[in-house]
Design goal:
The complex is a heterodimer. Chain A is an all-alpha fold. Chain A has one domain. Chain A has three helices and no strands. The N and C termini of chain A lie far apart (51 Å). Chain B is of the alpha/beta class. Chain B has a domain of 231 residues: Amidase signature (AS) domain (Amidase signature (AS) enzymes, Alpha-Beta Complex). Helices cover 38% and strands 15% of the residues of chain B. Chain B has 15 helices and 15 strands. In chain B, the strands form three sheets. In chain B, strands 1-3-2-6-8-7-14-15-11-9-10 form an eleven-stranded mixed sheet, with helices on both faces. The two termini of chain B are 27 Å apart. Classes of the chains: A mainly alpha, B alpha/beta. Chains A and B meet through helix 1, helix 2 and helix 3 of A and helix 10, helix 11 and helix 12 of B.
Chain lengths: 72, 473
């Protein structure tokens, strides 16, 4: 399982979000995140070679058009 | 115009609609009956965050005048409904079930409310939910614990817990919920009503507080399949305010409601047919027998990557939800409930690579599902592994006595179809021996709502009515 340590969790929350948590909470978050990263690592094994992420240029253009209209 | 109070509340939308149009009942009388019912039940139930009684009475009077003048707006004209409190309503507070948005009054309506409003629906109020829709218990730390009408010591499911509880308690005729990992289908299943999650993009998300942009769905929670089809008819379709809303043609969802299902091919998803409580397994197998008795062919199918679809859903939600909440997590972390803050903190550890990989992997599971649906009309699975657990329960014991996390056991059955974006409807199959609702879900091809509605309606007719919940004092 990828190692997410309680210390890493505490540092992220402190440096990026500006608050502190207890060691117990940090261990709990580290455990949850480690499990998630392990499972995420397995996603490559289900046959995703050649599959693009489902982000659409059509939506990008439509959002830009809508944003431009709402600015004007 | 003198139908008894209780009888008014027992009519489904389809019946109400006929009677309202024929002026056999009055929108004003009906709205008063519902407002009275909210007052009677919502102390223990906590289904509502805001009751818009003044606006409801005004809308009911307007509907009454219009119907009397022959200006019929359609089947929701004069029908009292309620919205999950993350659907924007102009000038009416929309909390998202949070302390952070406790005083937020949107400057515009969500498209889903614009369409229902235009159809003449009467808004009773805004419904309680799991904070920011990020959880499945609806035990809201800011607006009270929503309770299951069938057993007040049990959760209604979530996140649209208030939406389902209000339907079953007869404190709204129809409601709107949202579903990112199961939040329409889970509460419908645990409370014993119908929850329809349409195909992703079928219903506009404009003005709906997001949890995860690419997984959020908006849909009806109702008493019957027919009501769900009627409500979907009003809210579905392209919206220029939501660039991701589909331009796919919106069919007449009522077409198959009275059709037989003889000869239809129904696939039972092997990967979602284990880990069930004995009551759920029994109820699901009986439902399959009912589908066979209606002339459908029922056999087992496999979607090999489906067990990974839950983790795809989790990773995507962690990343997208954190992006939405990041500023508040910096400035107001103490204003979140403990469980929601914790899951957002786990999301802080999600690498961008995992997010992208999860997005790519969605297509694999959808490809496998579409392949199965090339020779099946719909798929079926239990909606939840268990009936509603008691409030505060964190783990269940399976037969082999492993401790299983309640949240994981419940989400496992619903999350995959947010990941694939396929339409899915939850429909009650029976009550357990201790009187708790149990449900199955019927899943279709992308934009195949008509097929799941047809099968669900046929099943509902064959199943007959469920015993109502005990009276709420």
């Amino acid at each position: 399982m990828p190692l997410v340590t309680a210390e890493t969790v505490k540092q992220v929350l402190r440096d990026l979000y500006g608050y502190q948590i207890t060691d117990t909470d940090a261990h709990s978050i580290a455990h949850g995140a480690g499990a998630m990263l392990t499972l995420a690592g397995h996603l490559g094994s289900i046959g995703i070679a050649g599959i693009e992420p489902p982000f659409s240029y059509a939506v990008l253009v439509a959002e830009a058009t809508r944003a431009a209209k709402s600015k004007s | 115009m003198s139908t008894p109070f209780r009888e008014l509340l027992d009519f489904d939308v389809a019946t109400l609609s006929t009677k309202l149009r024929a002026r056999e009942i009055s929108p004003v009388e009906l709205t008063e009956a519902y407002l009275g019912r909210i007052e009677q039940t919502d102390g223990p139930l906590r289904a509502y965050i805001t009751v818009t009684d003044t606006l409801a009475r005004k809308a009911a009077k307007k509907a009454e005048a219009e119907i009397a003048a022959g200006k019929w707006r359609g089947p929701f004209h004069g029908v009292p409904i309620a919205l999950k409190d993350l659907v924007f309503t102009k000038g009416i507070r929309t909390t998202g079930g949070s302390k952070i948005l406790a005083d937020f009054k949107p400057a515009h309506d969500a498209t889903v409310w614009t369409r229902l409003n235009r159809a003449g629906a009467v808004l009773l109020g805004k419904l309680n939910l799991h904070e920011f829709a990020y959880g499945i218990t609806s035990s809201n730390p800011h607006y009270g614990i929503v309770r299951n009408p069938y057993a007040l010591d049990r959760i209604p499911g979530g996140s649209s817990g208030g939406s389902a509880a209000a339907i079953v308690a007869r404190s709204a005729a129809a409601t709107i919920g949202t579903d990112t990992g199961g939040s329409i289908r889970i509460p419908a299943a645990l409370c014993g009503c119908v929850g329809l999650k349409p195909t992703w993009s079928r219903v506009s998300r404009y003005g709906v507080l997001p949890l995860a942009y690419t997984l959020d769905h908006v849909g009806p929670i109702t008493r019957t399949v027919r009501d769900a089809a009627m409500m979907l008819q009003v809210i579905a379709g392209a919206d220029r305010n939501d660039s991701t809303s589909s331009r796919e043609r919106v069919p007449d969802f009522s077409v198959g409601l009275d059709s037989e299902i003889t000869g239809m091919r129904i696939g039972v998803i092997r990967e979602l047919n284990d880990g069930l409580s004995d009551d759920v397994a029994r109820s699901f197998n009986t439902a399959l027998e009912t589908l066979r008795s209606l002339g459908a062919t029922v056999d087992q199918v496999t979607i090999p990557s489906l067990p990974m679809a839950g983790i795809m859903n989790g990773i995507i939600t962690w990343a997208e939800a954190l992006e939405i909440h990041e500023e508040w997590m910096r400035t107001r972390p103490q204003d979140y409930g403990d469980d929601v803050r914790r899951i957002l903190e786990i999301g802080m550890m999600t690498p961008a690579t995992s997010y992208i990989r999860a997005q790519r992997a969605r297509a694999r599971t959808l490809a496998e599902s579409i392949a199965v649906l090339s020779n099946h009309d719909v798929l079926v699975a239990p909606a939840c592994a268990i009936a509603a657990p008691k409030i505060g329960t964190t783990h269940i014991l399976e037969a082999r006595e492993d401790r299983v996390d309640v949240v994981a056991a419940i989400l496992r059955f619903t999350q995959p179809f947010n990941t694939t974006g396929q339409p899915a409807i939850a429909i009650p199959t029976s009550l357990s021996p201790d009187g708790l609702p149990i449900a199955m879900q019927i899943i279709g091809r992308p934009f195949g709502e008509s097929e799941i509605i047809r099968v669900a309606a046929a099943y509902e007719r064959a199943r007959g009515a469920l015993a109502p919940p005990p009276e709420i004092a």
